[in-house]
Predict the structure.
Amino acid sequence: MARRTGLTIRFRRLAPALLLCCAGVTSSVTADPLLWRSMDWFEGRWDGTEEGVSGKGRTARCVSTLFSGRFRFHWSVFELSPQPKSPEGARHERWQILGRKPDTDLIVLEQFDSAGYRSEFRLDPAQSRADRFVFRAVELDSAPEGMDARVVWAVTGGDSFRETLELGPVDGDLEPVSTLRWRRVSNAIVDCTGPAPEIGRAY
């Protein structure tokens, strides 16, 4: 309980700075405002599984709005199963701040990982629709120089979606490196600034 309380306090202290990061992004590309409103579907509590180059495991996510819906906060917890390089398994957390600039409708996704990495993606409106959102990398702290990345959220059912991270060289082909399959725990919209999400059962 003390650990979670500490995380909550740190989040509340850091939230203004994180949101300023999102507010400072500019671009000439505009997105349909309907895409932003379609993302309301992701609000709530999710359980899922992860499979990729780092291994397999379970994950949980909480998604809620900040500042009367001007931003969206995603808090994810990952637990990878034991493997040769990590016999005890691994646990990490990720915060994502999703923001929309009111003057251009540009949608920006910033990721802050508990390992200390920060990445930034921007929605590609030409490749996105109300049930499939494609984000292209702008900044990748955890990838080697000269690499490109894409994150895709694809709705696969009434209460499920698939999240794929693809990585590859700039101007080259991108290959999937991580796939997460999510299932909604309940339809209730929750406050994600409190305790971290708890890992549920695997699917």
Summary: The CA atoms of residues 43 and 64 lie 5 Å apart. The chain is about 15% helix and 50% strand.
